[in-house]
Amino acid sequence: MNLNVVYSSDNNYAQHVGVSMTSLFENNDDFNNIDVYLIENNISLENKNNLKLICKNYKRTIKFINFKEFSNKPKLNIGNSISISSYARLFLSSMLDDDINKVIYLDCDSIINSSLKDLWDLDLSKYFVAGVCDTVSDETKLKINMELYSPYLNAGMLLINLQKWREERVEEKFIKFIDSYKGQVFHHDQGTINGVLNNKFLILHPKYNSMSTYFSMSRKEIMQYYGLKDYYSEEELKEAINYPVFIHYTPAFVNRPWIKGCKHPLASLYKKYLGLTPWEETELIQDKRSIGEKTVAFLYNHLPFKMANGICNLIFK
Question: From which residue to which does any coiled coil extend (predicted)?
Fold first, then answer.
């Protein structure tokens, strides 16, 4: 059984690709082959060699795709008001060989905590993409002309039906959508995916994208904070916390595990896999969040949710 995985990164996040990729290999030895495709933007030769070494150690393959070269193609003429590289995952059906019909896209700020076999085996024939619902407000949906009742995916982990993307010329639809917003789609490529593929995707269990919010808020608090009318059940969120398949280190109030002071309860897993990479001696970096961001995080991390929420509403009204 073969698994196709895609990451996208610049040189600043090469270490995190290495950590995520190591966790992928460590927990997915039931696949005969794992082919990693890394869409890269100015990753140094040293970091590329480190990533190659990881793959060699696990007898897996990696192919680097220079997105700068790809972005020069005329059909990607989406203006200069945005960073084209931030839209890389939208063009996978062109960037990858035609015989690759399905891929899993993974954000590199992540740990793969168990096997992806059940996810990979899902029947995606009727859908363009599968993913986990994000915690976004009604305002976010309205900004890309979505119905308020429609689910909105977090694009950090996506199972993508490339065959269907090619058959339905989805890339062209993405470009038209971006152009209609003059190159400034809210939430960038994630907003584009949701705006174009609205109601054409398969909703997955939250364990396939366990975002930091799950670990710092209850279901009730998540719904109140983001103004959600519905979300996953308590039971589903509990499983996503206790048995996550894909741990997504979104900043939230806990920050990320390579930053000093991170309060994510599973930060140790990042450090565990970091220790298996050529970056094992790398030190944690300073927290560069603004005073306002640090203040909000402090309040929600140290006060009861209702009190923290009330104070923030007063301060930031």
Answer: none
